[in-house]
Amino acid sequence: MWPFPMESAHPMLVHFPIALLSVASLLDIAALALKRPEIHGVALWNLVLGTAAVFGNTSLSAQMLTFTPVSSIAGPFDLVGAEGTLAYVARGETLTVFDISDPTTPTR
């Protein structure tokens, strides 16, 4: 399982394969223009890795989890953390601890 929020994985899962495939095309053009066949090998590896990343992303997105909210704590917060059955909510200089052992009714 990915240890970071999926938002932080977006560049790696979306933009990096696009870059690999784009560079593969540019390297192929450079190999032809410069008449250097060894560059074709590098272009091929970019193409293979970019294609594998695209198909890997497809299977990864098919396995993504969906969550249904069961409760919420009102208000804008600066930082939220949880450990075990406790949620720590910071706003400004105030730290509030919530008992979330029953997630449908968090209590202070």
Topology record:
Blueprint: H1 6-34, H2 38-62, E1 79-83, E2 86-91, E3 94-99
Please describe what this structure looks like.
- The structure is a single chain.
- The protein is α+β, with helices and mostly antiparallel strands and 108 residues long.
- It folds into 2 domains: 6-62; 70-108, no CATH class.
- The protein contains 2 helices and 3 strands; from the N terminus they run ααβββ.
- It has a 3-stranded antiparallel β-sheet, with no helix packed on it.
- 4% of the residues are buried.
Rg over alpha carbons: 23 Å
Number of continuous helical runs? 2
Domain module tally: 2
Give the structural class: alpha+beta
Number of strands: 3
The low-confidence parts are none
Keywords:
2 domains, 108 residues, 2 helices, 50% helix, single chain
What's the short story on this structure?
By secondary structure, the chain is α+β, with helices and mostly antiparallel strands.
